[in-house]
Amino acid sequence: xxxxxxxxxxxxxxxxxxxxxxxxxxxxxxxxxxxxxxxxxxxxxxxxxxxxxxxxxxxxxxxxxxxxxxxxxxxxxxxxxxxxxxxxxxxxxxxxxxxxxxxxxxxxxxxxxxxxxxxxxxxxxxxxxxxxxxxxxxxxxxxxxxxxxxxxxxxxxxxxxxxxxxxxxxxxxxxxxxxxxxxxxxxxxxxxxxxxxxxxxxxxxxxxxxxxxxxxxxxxxxxxxxxxxxxxxxxxxxxxxxxxxxxxxxxxxxxxxxxxxxxxxxxxxxxxxxxxxxxxxxxxxxxxxxxxxxxxxxxxxxxxxxxxxxxxxxxxxxxxxxxxxxxxxxxx
Length: 332
Hints:
Layout: H1 2-29, E1 40-45, H2 54-67, E2 72-76, E3 87-88, H3 95-98, H4 100-109, E4 113-117, H5 121-130, E5 135-139, E6 151-157, E7 185-189, H6 197-207, E8 217-224, E9 228-231, E10 238-243, H7 249-258, E11 260-266, H8 275-282, E12 289-294, H9 295-301, H10 305-308, E13 313-316, E14 318-322
């Protein structure tokens, strides 16, 4: 069955390959021109459609700039926001006006950065140039060729590596595996905590068939930090857990290892919660049952204080940890 399905999907994948390769080729020839900015641009992106671990990488670079006392900007398109155009995030914004991930960035880094959303990244980049912002972290811009990048970081999941995937709709790649050759740094996210040198060598060798063989190949995993309160009092041992991230298995596994999970609810990536859904979740909670979620869920659930305010509601923040003593900060 899978064989016949692939036969049907193969021609469609080749059409996607043709048009994405043609676009890349026109930029490489200089027929389509890239804009050049004074602002240093660090792009973080992926080849797969959906989550690969970009957000923790963006936050890692942001924390690096904070540590160095460097003012910076984060630019995103603001996926699934209800607005259009160029917006500089402010206290009046939320996930509806700028998107869930930009809201998360703003909440964390607003004191030392400007978080912006724009479908046309060049509008935001011109603002940064005009206002002498020295560094920009460009979220999800690997396929955007309209401007020159100073550092192009490609993130791929250990559990779904780009070199084993196919172009959509046969697989989940936005463009050919060979597009990895544009990367200056390749990061594999969500690696096993005790990944060994043999596994590292296999992933590196398979990757370098498609990417520049001189680039650093880094390996990272996810660290779950102490839960942070949104509403209510103490975090109970019994919990309901929810997630609206692309690949929540590792999050759910962690929560199950630490708490007594009485119900686990999975929503689609970037899901916008309705009042009816929140009421349904609330009906499971009581004085001895807490609600626990990802940080991306928290920026949306916090809007429902009228429903969840009396209950114990927490989220678990994460940050990435680099393996083999080889850190991204060494290359920024």
